[in-house]
Amino acid sequence: MARMLVLAATGIAAATAAAGASAGPGMSLGPAARTPQPTYEAYYDGHKDAYLVTDVSSKAQATRLHVNYSAEIGRSKGLPPQYFVVGKAARGQLSVFGSEPGEADYNPLWEEELVTWKSGAKPVLLVKDDQITALAKAGKLTVRDAHVVLNAPITKVG
To answer: What is the pTM (predicted TM-score) of this model?
Structure first.
């Protein structure tokens, strides 16, 4: 599982080398190599972003996702949310980010929030965090903190 972090680091090295930039004074990231790694998609403000998953603060999720377990990241506070719809959902539903690179509050660590449609509410495709907040205020869905932190850096803004 530690290999996943190494793969992410080598991806950074490849990007720095391709850009002709240095990793920093006296820093060496080691040789760059391209390796396949699962990439996922999530919505942010109506478009899709691509992201990786490297670590999670839940042992069960780490096992299911084949990523690193890190209790320490679970102690992080003030993180942006990543919303996951559980139960009934609109066709094509993905998770929804509460931020992305370029935003002041972007962080590759995410507080997992579980979204559930209330009984009688017809699921619609959720593509914005503001949309989720508005529907929760309108009583159409509930949002619950899963108390899990996910290390999932966005690698491509849609």
So the answer is: 0.82
